[in-house]
Write a structure and sequence with these properties.
Length: about 210
């Protein structure tokens, strides 16, 4: 594998015209499915979703994608144009929220286990500490310190082709446990922490998962 950081490609796509000449133009169904509000169908989807991926970008345009997960319906829909995402305890990097302070643009991809279709929601976000809203986002007696409020600009259902191709929800395609990457080993090598064994790092991660979720 060529790891040259200056690797250049002979044929690059640099214009919309070039792209459409290869891919083609979207059909009426793909164009017309985008709506500017959270209607009843979108609300039902969000109410059953325990997991989403949040896309943001910083002041230099560098993109970031971050997972968010909780009980189904943890994202609260306040009205047809506004939803709120609780910010649960993490490692305090808060990359997404730092990005939103510079660039409010946000993209959300909602998942429901076992369902191939996903829901995409795009808009603008802001960080809030509204006490009334935070109280509605409490779980196990703990309120989030803040939340991400999203002003919805567009939302639409996304087809299941990626899930069909990947077999993501099909246990028969899942790798065996011993074949999975080790988060503990990755952390030790990436952070250069040499005073932890793999077992100690695994225990440290597990302790956080058990005792510091909320």
């Amino acid at each position: 594998m060529n790891t040259d950081p200056d690797l250049s490609f002979d044929k690059k796509i640099t214009t919309i015209e070039q792209l459409e000449a290869i891919i083609g133009e979207p059909g009426k169904l793909a164009i017309n499915k985008v709506i500017p509000v959270l209607d009843g169908h979108c609300r039902t989807f969000i109410s059953k979703s325990p997991f989403l991926v949040m896309s943001t970008s910083d002041e230099k345009g560098r993109g970031d994608a971050s997972p968010r997960g909780d009980y189904p319906g943890f994202v609260h829909v306040l009205n047809e144009k506004t939803l709120v995402i609780p910010e649960r305890p993490g490692n305090k990097r808060v990359d997404s929220m730092r990005n939103l302070l510079f660039n409010p643009g946000i993209g959300l991809l909602f998942f429901i286990p076992g369902l191939g279709e996903t829901l995409r929601v795009n808009g603008k976000a802001q960080l809030i500490q509204d006490e009334e809203i935070l109280s509605q986002l409490a779980f196990k007696g703990k309120e989030p310190l803040l939340a991400i409020a999203v002003e919805v600009e567009e939302c639409f259902i996304h087809c299941a082709k990626a899930f069909r191709r990947s077999g993501l929800w099909n246990p028969e395609t899942w790798p065996a446990g011993h074949e999975l990457p080790s988060a503990a080993k990755m952390l030790i090598e990436h952070t250069k922490i040499d005073d932890h064994t793999t077992e100690q790092m695994t225990q440290r991660l597990e302790d956080g998962y058990i005792n510091r979720l909320y």
